[in-house]
Design brief:
The complex is a heterodimer. By secondary structure, chain A is mainly alpha-helical. Chain A is built from 11 helices and 2 strands, in the order H-H-H-H-H-E-E-H-H-H-H-H-H. Chain A is flat and about 75 Å long. Chain A starts with 15 loop residues before the first helix and ends with a helix. The termini of chain B are far apart. Classes of the chains: A mainly alpha, B alpha/beta.
Chain lengths: 273, 287
């Protein structure tokens, strides 16, 4: 049952977006997220929506996979919408008992919903089209200027990729320990929250011990294979920018300019009419 | 001097209590001498706690001697300058296949060693392809290690070591966690490396039937070498092996029992074919 969980929800298919260099995708996602918070008129969001729609179309990933990520934030969305609707001071539109909905409140709530949902969909496009490995490689390479500030960039990336490699193994192990404890009469299902939390102790203790043992073995195996940190290391799959990556950067820049200018263009058009 | 030479090796584990005071000393290895020639297939046998794994870790500079010296390809393991050369010359495969695979894709794991050594990208790919072919795992190169069987994972680990172009491979109970099919796969791969590539193999195991192909066998007990010789010499000493709490391959045991019962079977029979031939001869002579 636990084995079915897959982290780093990569969707295997062949598309232009899949083939892009992970650095491009990471940078574009960050720029896209920042742009969502910088734009503050409808025209900007229309441009963002168009951009996102084109990228999703190009990625060949079914739209329902993108929406899956939204489920996790539905609750958060509802709370922020409620707070923004009722607690923003301004021109009142509707009054229910002691609560007032203001025009400003509606605008803020709508913008927040758009921002958050675009943010989630935008970042799932990245994780759906990039393997976890490429992702860590891309991060290492993008963050490499931080090495000068003595940030252990290579080590962090290595830790991330090892964590990803061990997730399925530890899942399987959890499953095994759970079954072993259940065979000896442990009860993980019934009782209130506190009782359930307590019943996890006999599961977590052996899991931790085994994880430490594995870590110890792995460290020894890595040393035996001459691992000594990031220096002097060559790469089996080095990252190289090709033409399409530069084209993608250009597209992102184009998106930023149109998005930023969209509001003003809309204004001028309105004025002309 | 051979590829690996061990002289007067003693290794002690110091046990400490919670305050860090010495509680006691366990001598895991007690005065061992070894000399292994390039291209040999050497097995080290012993039951649990006989010190065989500790010995293996000395040959790869993971542990350092308390007393005595270990030379790998003429280099002293205690000299820090040589540590990476030594680890590249003497590759090591461990017991648990899950805990020694680093990559998330088979080919990336095999490339890990060469990457660490600073081999150029193009050559890494050549080495990865060639080592995966050598262990018969080339068609699985794009797989996730989690999707492979134990024997396949262990073959990937071996490929990961071969990709570093070692002169010698030390296998520390590589088959202990595998099923019989996985064990056969791994042993076959190891024998092929020794026969075809002439890589020195040091196989540490407690399965008797895995050592019959080796050139030399060392039997360890309580940190000392209790017996050494060719497999045939070792297996003719059935009574001594029983004393050391080691099993003898079934055919060898059968031949030994027959001899005890008065049938003139020769000592040290290792395979079924040998047994059949020898038994036939006995029967013919009797007629």
């Amino acid at each position: 049952m636990l084995r079915d969980i897959t982290l780093g929800q990569y969707y295997q298919t062949d598309s232009v977006i899949h083939r892009l260099d992970p650095r491009v995708k990471l940078a574009a996602t960050i720029i896209f997220i920042i742009s969502l918070f910088v734009f503050n008129d409808i025209a900007g969001y229309i441009v963002a929506a168009l951009f996102l729609a084109i990228v999703i179309k190009l990625s060949k990933v079914p739209f329902k996979f993108m929406v899956k990520g939204m489920k996790a934030i539905v609750f958060l969305l509802i709370i922020t919408v409620v707070f923004n609707l009722f607690l923003t001071p301004g021109e009142p539109v509707l009054r229910i008992w002691k609560l007032t909905i203001t025009k400003e409140g509606i605008k803020l709530a709508a913008f927040l919903v758009i921002r958050l949902s675009f943010l989630i969909i935008g970042s799932s496009v990245m994780t759906l089209t990039t393997t976890p490995n490429q992702l860590t490689d891309g991060m290492e390479s993008l963050m490499s200027p931080l090495k000068k500030l003595k940030v252990p960039v290579h080590e962090v990336a290595m830790m991330m990729s090892i964590a990803l490699r061990f997730i399925p193994i530890l899942m399987e192990e959890t499953d095994k320990i759970m079954k072993a404890q259940m065979a000896r009469g442990a009860d993980f299902e019934s009782g209130n929250v506190i009782k359930k939390a307590k019943s996890l102790v006999p599961l977590l203790v052996p899991l931790f011990i085994s994880a430490f043992r594995r870590a110890n073995d792995l460290a020894m195996a890595m040393e035996a294979r001459c691992y000594r940190g990031g220096e002097h290391r060559t790469r089996m799959k080095p990252l190289h920018y090709v033409k399409r990556d530069f084209a993608a950067y250009a597209c992102v820049a184009l998106y930023l300019i149109t998005g930023a200018a969209a509001g003003r263009i809309a204004e001028t058009v309105c004025a002309l009419l | 001097m051979g590829i690996i030479k061990v002289k007067d090796l003693i290794f002690e584990y110091i046990r400490r209590d919670e305050e860090g005071n010495v509680e006691g000393i366990t001598t895991a290895i007690d005065d061992i001498n070894l000399d292994i020639e390039q291209g040999d297939f050497v097995s080290v046998l012993g039951h649990n706690g006989s010190g065989k794994s500790t010995l293996a870790k000395h040959l790869n500079a993971i542990l350092y001697p308390t007393e005595g010296t270990v030379w790998v390809d003429g280099k002293d393991t205690q000299n820090n300058e040589y540590i990476w050369d030594i680890r590249q010359t003497a590759g090591m495969v461990f017991q648990n296949p899950d805990n020694q695979i680093i990559g998330q894709v088979v080919e990336e794991d095999v490339g890990f060693g060469p990457e660490n050594m600073g081999v150029l990208t193009k050559e890494i790919w050549e080495r990865v392809d060639e080592s995966l072919k050598a262990v018969g795992m080339y068609e699985f190169r794009k797989y996730s290690p989690n999707k492979l069987s134990g024997g396949q994972k262990q073959r990937v680990s071996i490929a990961g070591v071969i990709a570093m172009h070692p002169k010698c491979i030390i296998l520390d109970e590589p088959t202990a966690m595998l099923d019989p099919k996985g064990r056969r796969e791994v042993i076959r791969a190891v024998r092929a490396l020794n026969d075809v590539e002439h890589i020195t193999v040091i196989l540490i195991t407690h399965y008797m039937d895995e050592v019959i192909y080796s050139d030399k066998v060392y039997v360890m007990d309580k940190g000392k070498i209790a017996l050494h010789g060719t497999p045939r010499e070792i297996f003719s000493k059935v009574e001594r092996l029983k004393e050391l709490r080691l099993d003898v391959p079934q055919v060898t045991l059968l031949a030994h029992e027959l001899k005890e019962a008065g049938i003139p079977m020769p000592d040290g029979i290792l395979t079924k074919e040998e047994f059949a031939a020898a038994f036939d001869e006995c029967v013919n002579r009797a007629i």
